[in-house]
Amino acid sequence: MYLIVGLGNPGKEYEKTRHNVGFDTIDELVDAHRMGSSGKKHKAMYGKGTIAGEKVILAKPLTFMNLSGESVREMVDYYKIDVKNELIVIYDDIDLDPGQVRIRAKGSAGGHNGLKNIIAQLGTQEFARIRIGVGAKPKGWDLADYVLGRFDKTVRAEVDQAIERAAKAAACIVEEDINSAMNKYNG
Predict the structure, then answer these.
(1) Residue 15 is part of which domain span?
(2) Handedness of CA 150, 4, 29, 105 (dihedral sign)
(3) Which residues have a catalytic role annotated?
(4) CA dihedral 173, 129, 5, 164 (to 10 degrees)
(5) φ and ψ at 169, to 5 degrees?
(6) CA Rg, the chain, in Å?
(7) Are 138 and 76 in contact (CB under 8 A)?
């Protein structure tokens, strides 16, 4: 069974912000694979279904970004997820240009507080992650204001395409493996 977690912040005020591209990717996966909501549990909104015949849980933690690990830890424990082989985390990255997608099998948090909390809660950096570029913050901007802001229309179109690619990459990891997904979708 795979657990695919998209990071973001709950609430209407955060919809379509840079920090919520992980949530947006989960929504894309829900639509693409026709999965309904199973409700709220483990401090997350979640749904169950299948991708390529594999059981999958899609989740959006409701703990707010910086405490995402609390929800992920509960789901990993409850569903007995093999973190190294069955967990995929999708999130925003300011070090990538808008529209870029990067897939890795493991790595550091790279300054992302949501990922830092997941690593702290799980006690490992060895899990798949899909990063979606949102661009660097402009000089003089507060980082929180930037990541909680929205894209302009032109950039949003690029990011929407990246969200679609990220969803396909997550499905590719489930259907094939992470190396196939890296070869097809990194860039």
Answers:
(1) 2-185
(2) positive
(3) 19
(4) -60
(5) -65, -45
(6) 15
(7) no
Domain holding 111: CATH number?
3.40.50.1470
84 close to 31: Cβ distance less than 8 angstroms:
no
Q: Which two tokens stand for residue 84?
A: 């190294």
Total count of domains within the chain: 1
- pLDDT (tens digit, 0 to 9) for every residue of the chain, 187 residues total? 999 999 999 999 999 999 999 999 999 999 999 998 888 999 999 999 999 999 999 999 999 999 999 999 999 999 999 999 999 999 999 999 999 999 999 999 999 999 999 999 999 999 999 999 999 999 999 999 999 999 999 999 999 999 999 999 999 999 999 999 999 999 6
For the entire predicted model, the pTM comes to 0.96
Contact 18, 134 (CB under 8 A): yes
